[in-house]
Structure formats: C-alpha cells, structure tokens
UniProtKB/TrEMBL annotation:
Domain VOC positions: 1-78
Record's protein name: VOC domain-containing protein
Domain of life: Bacteria
PANTHER family reported in the protein's UniProt record: CONSERVED PROTEIN, HYPOTHETICAL FUSION PROTEIN
Amino acid sequence: MTVALGAGRPMIAFQKVADPTPGKNRIHLDLRADDRTAEVERLIAAGATLVAERSMGDGFAWTTLADPDGNQFCVASD
C-alpha cells in the first residue's frame, strides 16, 4: 500500500513494508524532487549514504539512500 500526500510539489509518499527484517524500515519514505541529482548531493552532504540508482523503462528514475541509522528512503524525479 502506498499513500501519497500533495497533488503538486512537494509530494511525499509512504509505503508500508509487510515483513519486518533487520535493516529494513516498517515504513518506506519516498520523496520527489524537481532536481533529483542536486537533492541527492545535498542529502549525501548531510550524512545520507547512497544505496542504489534505479530506473524504470519509461524514464521514471529514483535514488535509494540510507540515513545515518541505516533507514532507507528514496528520492525520485519525473
């Protein structure tokens, strides 16, 4: 299940993770940024760690990061 708040920018979405596992969030935070590259750089400078760059075939791309405690979240762009 995904819940998204906001029709425009900023938009925030939450995904519930079904099975708790070590190192995996119960809630997964998805953020959108007009300039994903700049936002990812800002978050890494603030202490986040790059986990992976991902994309779908339709041009939708996102970056998975982890906060200093290892909680993963994503930054997406259209």
